[in-house]
Amino acid sequence: MLAINEILFNIQELLGDNAQIKKFFLGKATIVINAKSIKDVVARLVKNDSTLGLSAITGIDLDKTIGLLYHLRTSEGIVTIKTEVSKGKPIISSITNIIPGANFHEREAADLFGIIFKDHPNLKRLVLPDNWPNDLYPLRKDANLEDISKSRDNFSYKIDGSQSQEDSLVNIIVGPQHPALLEPEKFSLKVDGEIVKYVEPRIGYVHRGVEKAAEKKTYLQDVYLVERICGICNACHASAFVESVEKILGTQVPDRGKYIRTVILELNRLHSHLLLLGHAGLEIGYETLFQYLWRDREPVMDLTEMLTGNRVIASSLTIGGVRRDIKETHIPIIKKQMIYLRERMIFYKDLFENEPSIKLRTKNVGVLSTQDAIKLCVVGPVARASGVPIDVRKDDPYEAYGEIPFKLVTRNDGDAYSRLMVRLEELFESINIIDYAIDNLPKGPYRIKVPRVVSAGEVVNRVEAPRGELLYYLKSNGSAYPERVKVRTPTFSNIPAFQKTIIGENMADVPANIVSLDPCFSCTDR
Amino acid sequence: MRSITTWARIKSPWVIHFNSGACNGCDIEVIALLTPRYDVERFGIKLAPSPRHADVLLTTGVVTAQCAERLKRIYDQMPEPKFVVAIGACACSGGVFKGNYSVVGGVENIIPVNIYIPGCPPKPEAIIDGVVKLLNSLKEA
Amino acid sequence: MQNRVGPSLTGPSGILQPLADFIKLITKEDIIPRDAKKTVFRFAPILAFSVIVFGMCFFPIDGTNIIPNSAFSGDLIFDLALLTIVNFLMFLSGWASASPYGSIGAARVLVQFLGYDIPLFLLALSPAFLAQSLSISEIATAQNIPFVILAPWAFILFLIAMQAELEKDPFDTPNAESELVGGLETEYCGGRLAFLHLTRDVQIIFGAAIVVELFLGGPYGPVFFGFPTFWYTLWFILKLLGVIVLSEYLASLFARLRIDQVLTGNWKILLPLSILSLILTVALATWIYPWVM
Amino acid sequence: MGDVKLVKKRISPMIKEVLTRFFSKPVTEKYPFVTTEVPEGFRGKQLFNIDLCISCGLCSRDCPSNAIEMVEVDGKRRPLFHLDLCIFCYQCAESCPRNAIKSSVFFELASNDKKDLILKPEANNKTGGSD
Amino acid sequence: MVSETESLIAYTFLKNKIIDSGFCTLCGACEIACPLGALQLKAEKVERLTDCSKGLDLCPICYEICPHSEALLLRSLSFVADAPVKNEAVGYYRKIVLAQAGDPQLRAQSMGGAVVTSLLKYGIESGFFDSAIVTQAESQNPSKPVPKVAIVPDDILSAIGSKFFPSSVAKAYGSAVYDYGQKNIAFVGVPCHVLAVRKLEAWQHKISSNLKIIFGLFCFGTFSLNSMLTYITKRYNILPSDILRMRLSSKFVIQTRDGETEIPLPEIDDHILPSCRVCTDFTAELADISIGSGYPLEGWSTVIIRTKTGEDFFYEAVEKGIVNTWVIEEEPKVFERLMVAAMEKRTNALKKAKEMERTSGLHPILLLRESSVLSNSRIDEIMTRSVKTVSLDTSVSQFLVLVPKFRHIAYPLVNKKNVPIGWVTLEEAAKVEKHLRAKTSVNKIAIRKLVTVYADETALVAFKKMSSHNIGRVLVIDRTNPDMVLGIVTKMDLMHTLTKQF
After folding, report:
1. Global ipTM
2. DSSP H stretches of helix in C131-176
3. Are A410 and A136 in contact (CB under 8 A)?
4. SS3 E480
5. Which of A121, A242, C2, E221 has its CA at a distance of 20 to 30 angstroms from the CA of residue E3?
């Protein structure tokens, strides 16, 4: 990973004057360049630092122009390249051929902001429904969305299950309603006999327009809205949003608040990984494993309910700290459950390592090489299973992760089996973190009073959700309502990896492959 | 004869679950019902693989524009004595996302709903309580 | 098995649950997909059910057959053939429903049971050879020492082959929910679905019954007092339950295997093993067992 | 297929596990007949105490899903809770200056028509709601 | 129960009536009471961050909560109104006791009897309350008070010593409730801050449900921080940072590293906060326990116990030997000094208040006003019956000895035929020099003016007479026989009738 100042030096040297550099703004540094030179800047960067990944592309409506922020992920943190495109002629060249991972980000920006990316492989609808009027871009400030709700009744229900039979390929739709998949999303696979030749994921079934809704609610209400983007990793969304507001306000959350937040985040990670491993059991037909894993997940749910008042959506994080304290009576219960969980994890680790049928179904299925993982800018356990050691808790620690010692779990053979094993081992780490946090929970306040109006500012904030790096961009304009909230969820950058890993595998492995990527489509579509 | 069929319908309601745009908080609670701790199989409730086999449709999530048509199609595929249970604030009325551009809001705009279970997400016991209330209302009907 | 209660509210501790499922399914509305093959679609399930029930009556449950003097030499082969026919009819019903999932599920059923029939037959021959006869009732009577002790390897392999035949885990690829929505049952609903489910349940009992007859000495067991038929049926039911629990236990141990692994497993491993076990039983029977029995 | 199991290093622990589970008591809680105990912090249905309310309207302004509507009840404006919209985040309880909105552990709120899900603030009865 | 002011958005009243007119004593109660968090207490002034009227129907909170507004005063008084004794100078109380900390090392550190510190330490250790709001001195600038939520006993030890500048203890109380999540909090504050917390309780604000006990401190008046410090640095060139400790007795003493400098009282007089000038409350009449210096006794504090909770806690501490007590009746000088100081503050505060009402039209809080309640309650219901009269021949020193026993500060003077001819008040008696006290007779210092009312008249009549003659008490005589004394009605009795309605 290239050091930050080397990157800045490269760009400065490449572009000379027309690139202003603002240090420590929007991540580690921001480089403002004009739209035309985006392609060669990115090419130059990737050339001398192969491990550079594109974290997200954020669009902002700056009333005459549309701003595009390319957040690049280096080892030391986020570097943002800022360009502007005029609203009249929003054309910019696509960087997908340099960084394949940018494919989905560009399609989403095209959908919601109406930016045309020159020579982008397939600029089709990604997030919005197919029959969306194509001159209406929801995230622009001037988009009048009222007529949409009226015109919704005459939505033409175009059946999109086209059974085109080009060559000998059978077109199988793993459709929105499928017992294996928890959520609606569609993969149209082209199958030759049993081998999958081509897959086209179609997401957007769970697109609820959260980013637009966030601009209409106050910061306090947004915390609850943002938490409900994804029910499984809700604490991470809350923590990311709350931290970005605190970064703008500059408030210092008291230590006890930080420790309690870390406990809740780790409980959330435990809950999410156990759920995923159970779901994997269901996918590969191992009913009993599913039943046992989800039974052992119940203690985690009970703990969350005891600490925060709700089994799943732990709305206990708020701007300035935590809403509820961890009482003295809770601590022994937490410790007892952690001991029970550790025992069960040892059993499952032993099971996953020695159970032949699991290995048969997941060993070298859907292999993702380290090179591909970096190229596709994959995040979280999927990347760590392919030997890419990125984890926001280690790279730039937030909350109390700086003070809590834990190991970064990585494996190198990048197949479905190692993805599951990475998650299993991370469970041990989570239990250790919770134990450590509970043992030295600092005394004192767990919350600080925060004004409801947030001063103007812009910030990028990253959090390690169970599925990977979750990036939030927040722009505030000094009123009680945020100007722009951009959410880039981990599964959004993991989906392209699914296209890579499935081609060449046989049909029966599709569910095992999907589940090993731990897709959370309510996250992806926002 | 009629009382036996109602008895049979009450005793073995096969369920199908469709998530029309939910944050999957409610979905994991629905699936948690099958796990040992809550185990709805005591009531003979089984997760049916395809709409053809199902009697009760458990919908979760605010109906997004794209899913509306799917939801309608699933509902039509189900054989006749069918019931719909809307789980969670989103399914009942659109919850936090009500009013967003791509959200139809509430399942009742698309298909008739028999039972509303509020909560975000409702506890598994609350869902069982909803299904039991549905079965009881069947008994009287 | 999965640490949960299972149906417990229909009838005393849930015994009537299958009955409730059956009646409800019958009273359901019946939809026949537009482009399904009408005749086959309508009759295949009922036909399959009748064949399997017919197959059941060849087992001597209480010392004498259900249908008197229907035992004829070679009814073992006849029974196994019936099992194959039933599977074929299941394939037909899947193929008839003309939904993509239905046809793929049907293809898998066909591929699977054709593959596993051969080892099943070979393994069935070992007890037949030990009892020097092909009629089930005679095999059952000849077992004063249950063949499971004489040929344990045959018993284990037969159990695995039966597991695959009945499409129970780890070989239940045909009606794998996660891949194909409902396998061959996808398009069925109402009455036909009820019959399909019934056929599947009877198939399980049929398989277990064969295992009991050939390896565990059928209904014959120690008789304490009173008339033997009562005790024989009791023994038979007990052994039957034992085998079913064993197969459930096996099912819960493994994840579902991929279709190609199932096939490679069958042709590369199970078939040679069954031939070996047959040779072993024959060798043992001719040299060692005569002076023992 | 059978012999693969023998060659591996250790016997899969699942065999022992399933056996122990087979004989041990199932973990299921017989919910409808046995009421489950809910931790006291649980966020169930709101309890609205009309005497404490100064009808300042802060709860309806702070509610993320606008589930609280201010309605006239004999002269004064009181909050009416739409439980179908409500996401039970209890921001209203936190914003209310006077503890007029308290939490309860009551979660069985399923009902077959929407009218039951509207909690109307009647005068001088402690628990709002007409269901 | 929406208050009498019915104001739509209270902040407008708060702003021009209290903040702009400088009545604010920076306690921070409005900041914690505001549900929107729209108010923030900056260094010397309260500011509003957002326009709180948007989207809100009405919000009376911040004006009503402010100790210097006239709302909710009687309701707050009702919390202590169940005490048996109604004394004009120090308000309602159950017992007045002299006390000092049991642990000598604590006593050495503090000026007075270190009773507050030891009580707080004991309270936290015994779990009677889980935290206390104390005021510590800021490390670099020791004279600047910093309120702190004390959870562990040694936080309290570092907060010894009384402070002379306003410290926003109410704001710390808010953070104890919201940020620290404490459930039973002990509040320590000067009378106007105690009034603020009592108003929160009277308004049934949800913060007050976490309040366990209130300790009041005697208060002569606080000074405004910057004006006082700039004056000191300009006049005596002492930098604020090197002031170690300040003491106020007869003179205002500033102790620095290199010695002490004394400042005459009148000089510091104009730095007193405007609201303190009109404050009638010297002994924190609304606290559960009020504690002040036991002057002239060295090393002792006077403790006034007012409510049941105060009584239980105090005597629990006494049994455990945390605090050792001494009966005040044995020390009439202390009682006398206390009463005199309290009456002195009350009278010139009322004088200042009337004068301020005439000049700038601002009418600070005057509890007693014509109100319907007074007109319909009769005098014989509210008067104190058992009247101790003073005969002509008693000397001033004898008078001073019987005063603490009968707990009143003014007694009717009767001649030989037992006919009331005037009043003997404690204030007058205290003016006599010590060595003359034995000799001078009570008759010399008595006030001849006798204002009388009849038993069957209404309390309103008594009130009108009192305010017209500007005196604190009237004599109740029988209509038929003017010489026969039936009872006395004091301002406190009138106040009591008002508080009875809550």
Report:
1. 0.84
2. 136-141, 147-150, 152-165
3. no
4. coil
5. E221
